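Thread: sanity check for a docking pose with zinc ion

Original post by kr_44:
Hi all, I'm comparing my docking run against an independent structure prediction. Below are the sequence and the ligand SMILES. Could someone generate the full complex and paste the structure tokens? I mainly care about where the ligand ends up relative to the chain.
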Amino acid sequence: MQGLIHHVEIFVSDLKRSKEFWGWLLEELGYDVYQKWDKGQSWKLGETYLVFVQAEERFLDVPYHRSRVGLNHLAFHAASRAKVDELTLALTERNVTILYQDKHPFAGGKDYYAVFFEDPDRIKVELVAPQNCY
Ligand SMILES: [Zn+2]
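Reply from moderator J.T.:
Ran it for you. Here is the predicted complex with zinc ion included:
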């Protein structure tokens, strides 16, 4: 549909590590592998795909930081609060850093049920349940 996100491409510091993380997460959310080549991989859901590409060595001296200019975080719809809970547990088991643990799952507000966590490059990722959907 016109105006919806067509794709997002993200450079990563370690493609193998990012593929393991994002492959697991995106497939949990219903994405399928879309494109695959030696320097990158993408996953697609509906009309949107996300691409992860190995950054060139010469650009790795300055690491990503989500507080700098550029992407701060990516947020995904979860089917329900139960799915947020299920994935929070699975993320914990995978030793993924969960952010704002003291306020979880209401770090985004009292009617906003979500989990916030970090990808391997510390890009913030958010998974949010629909309102009033348990
Ligand atoms: Zn957000």
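The helical segments are 15-28, 81-93. Hope that helps with the comparison, let us know if your pose agrees.
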